[in-house]
Design a protein that fits this description.
Elements: H1 2-11, E1 29-32, E2 35-41, E3 44-45, E4 48-49, H2 60-81, E5 89-100, H3 108-123, E6 130-136, E7 145-153
Parallel strand pairs: 5-6
Antiparallel strand pairs: 1-2, 2-7, 3-4, 5-7
Helix pairs in contact: 2-3
Length: 155
């Protein structure tokens, strides 16, 4: 699958970033059985963290792009955890999407679509996943979006 995913990334004009190092006392991924749990990932564009709050100056479109960037970072972490290949990915099981938003902002699911649509574009039916999309008053380092994941991998 890795060749197909690499080709699809290239077709979409996308590239995986360097997997980010943890910023606190945790590890980026934990493999439990055939489920790879990916810690929350933040959106980076051109080496800079995408910050801000929905409902207070950040547009849904900009936040969808931030969610897509989180999705790319998730895949970078998965690739690193699996020895440099996405070939063992069998399914994206779940995404947990946290959106830095004001109390009256209610379009968190639209923001989360930025990552969800990326997974389906890359993995097809295996990219269709369960999902949570919640608003929070603040995220680490002021990030606009943070996403964690559970990914099924082949043994």
């Amino acid at each position: 699958m890795t060749d197909r995913i690499d080709r699809k990334l290239e077709e979409l004009g996308l590239a995986l970033p360097q997997a980010a190092a943890p910023v606190a006392a945790y590890v980026p991924t934990v493999l439990a059985g055939n489920l790879l749990h990916v810690s929350g990932q933040l959106p980076f564009k051109d080496g800079q963290l995408v910050t801000g709050r929905l409902g207070d100056g950040v547009s849904i479109e900009d936040a969808q792009e931030a969610a897509r960037l989180c999705g790319l970072m998730i895949l970078a972490q998965v690739k690193a955890a699996l020895g440099g290949s996405l070939g063992r990915v069998e399914r994206i099981v779940k995404l947990g999407v946290f959106v830095n938003s004001t109390g009256d902002f209610t379009d968190q699911p639209k923001v989360a679509n930025g990552a969800s649509e990326l997974m389906v574009a890359l993995f097809g039916d295996a990219g269709k996943h369960a999902r949570s999309a919640v608003g929070v008053p603040v995220l680490p380092l002021g990030a606009a979006v943070e996403i964690d994941a559970i990914v099924q991998v082949a043994a």
